[in-house]
Amino acid sequence: MPSRSRSVYAAVALAAVLVLSGCVGPALDAPATEPGSTGGDASTGAPGTTAATAGPSTPTPTAVGEQASPWGSGPVVVAVADPAGTGREWTPLVREAVTFWEAESERFAGYPIDYDVRPDATDPDIVIEFVDTVPECDGAGDAAGCAPLLTDSRQIDRPETVSVRTGFADGSTVTVIQHELGHTLGLTHDDAPADVMASRMVLYTEPLPNATERDFAWDDPEFAVYVDSDNVSDPTEFRAQVQRALDYYEDDPPGMPTNLRFTLVDDPDDAEIVVRPVETSPCGSGAVSCGGTAGWDPDGDGAVETYSALRISVVDLDTDAVGWHVGYWLAFGFGAEPDSEKPPPFRDASYGERRSAWWE
C-alpha cells in the first residue's frame, strides 16, 4: 500500500499600505495655518492593498487524462467539525468550496466528483475540522491548512481529516478549503489551478480594529530611530533636537502611551521611525514638516490595522524648531491625530513656542 503523505497550504501574507499623512505649515504670531493632520483621502492616495486577494480561477491545465476517482462513484460525504469552539457558521463556506470542485474536478483532477455536505454525518468520508493551530504538516510552521495527498483508493482511510486554521475572512477560508480538498483529489502545489493550489498566497484575516481605533497600533513600544543629518547646517544640534523629542516621550507625557523606548540606528532600513530633511515636502507646498505612517492590512479592508513605520520630513526648517516638529509627528504616530489629543506643547504652539525649551 502506498504510504500516505501530508501536504500543506501555508503562509499568511500581509498587505502593506501607506496611510495617514499630514503637514505642518509655517507658524507666525497669528498663524494663517495651524498644524493639522486629518489623514489621506481618495484624492491624496487613500489606503489600499498592494496585494490581490487569492481566489479561484480556471486556467487550462497542461494535461489531464481520464481516470477513475479514488473515492468511488458515490457522493463523498463531508462532515464539518469545530474543535476550536468558534461557533462560526463554517458549513456555508465548505459548501462553496465543494461546489467549486464539483464544477472543476474533471477538468483539473481528471475525474468528476460529487460531494454531500452533512455537518453531523456519523460515517463521513472526509471531516473538515476548523482548528486554532494546524497539526504538524510536512514540517511547515505557518500552515493555514493540511490534508492528505490522495491519488489511489488504497491510500484512503475513512474518515480522512482536513484541517483548516480559524481566524481568516470568509473568502480566504474558502480558498484554504478548496486548496486542501484539491490535495484529496490528488493535486499538488505544482498543479493547476495555480491560484488555488499554489503553496503560498495572500490570505486575509477576519475584520480587525483599524489602527486609528486602537489605543496603541504598533507591535511593541520599542522603536529603532534613524536620523538623517547629512545635509543640514548644524548636524550636531539637529540630532540633539530630535533626541529631545525622543526623551520627552520616554518620560511618559500625558495622554501618550507609556514605556516608550527609542534606540538610534545607522541604517534607515532598520528603523521604524525615520527623521529626514527634505527639499520639497511630500505633503504639498507651504508645509515645513510632514509625517506619514505605513503599516499592515491583514484583513484586506484597505485600512491599516498595525503600524510598522513612521516617516517624519522637515523642510527648510530652523534647527531650533526641529525638536518641536518631530515631537508633533511622534504624537501623531502614537495615535493622537487630532491636535486636541496631543500633549500640551503641541497644541496651538506659536512661532516662538516651537523654538523654545518646550520639553521642560
Report on this model:
With 360 residues, this protein is an alpha/beta fold. The protein folds into two domains: 180 residues, 3-Layer(aba) Sandwich (Collagenase (Catalytic Domain)), CATH 3.40.390; 144 residues, 3-Layer(aba) Sandwich (Collagenase (Catalytic Domain)), CATH 3.40.390. The protein is 19% helix and 21% strand. The chain has a six-stranded mixed sheet, with helices on one face. Strands 2-11-12-10-8-9 form a six-stranded mixed sheet, covered by helices on one side. Helix 1 packs across helix 2. It is elongated and about 85 Å long. It starts with a strand and ends in a 6-residue tail after the last helix. The N terminus is likely disordered.
Write the SSE topology.
Elements: E1 5-10, E2 16-24, E3 76-81, H1 91-108, E4 115-117, E5 126-131, E6 143-149, E7 160-165, H2 170-184, H3 194-197, E8 222-227, H4 235-250, E9 261-264, E10 273-278, E11 289-296, E12 306-315, H5 322-333, H6 351-354
Parallel strand pairs: 3-4, 3-5, 5-7, 8-9, 8-10, 10-12
Antiparallel strand pairs: 1-6, 2-11, 6-7, 11-12
Helix pairs in contact: 1-2, 4-5
Compact summary:
This protein has 360 residues and is of the alpha/beta class. It is built from 6 helices and 12 strands.
What is the overall pLDDT average?
Answer: 83
Number of extended strands: 12
The CATH class of the largest domain:
Alpha Beta
Strand order of the largest sheet: 1-6-7-5-3-4
Secondary-structure-derived class:
alpha/beta
Q: pLDDT under 50 segments (min length 5)?
A: 1-5, 8-23, 25-65
Domain count: the total is 2
**Per DSSP, what share of the residues sits in E-state strands of 2 or more residues?**
15-25%
Helix content: 10-25%
Number of helices: 6
List the secondary-structure elements in sequence, H or E. EEEHEEEEHHEHEEEEHH
End-to-end distance: 78 Å
Main sheet makeup? 6 strands, mixed
Shape: elongated
CATH architecture of the largest domain: 3-Layer(aba) Sandwich
